[in-house]
Amino acid sequence: MNANPVNDFYAVIAARLDYLEAVPTEVLSTLVTRDGACMWPSGDPAEPEVIGTDSPDRSAAAQICVGCPVQDACLELEFRTAGFATLGVWGGLAEDDRRAACLAWCERRDGGRS
Ligand code: SF4
Question: Which Pfam families would you find in this protein's record (predicted)?
């Protein structure tokens, strides 16, 4: 167990994705593009803008991804395909949060589960 509550937060996110480990990447991609809440224009002029700065992007992620039925699949797919090169908002997380969660995810997938 991590002594740092921030690291615990990212470890919990990584552990939450364990059930998707055996799902093929193509299936995840199909789920996300078919069912992702952001894949269809909302027509809402107040839709948040992703600007590449943590705090606003955390807020944008919360607004864009809230209620999306495929958040876990989206995050798993992004970790597999982009890893640390991830940009923008995916899986309900801003870039820096996703990179930290990706590190915890990589550690788990490399046998770091306790
Ligand atoms: S989790 Fe967010 S970024 Fe991913 S598909 Fe859903 S709405 Fe889009």
Answer: Whib (PF02467)
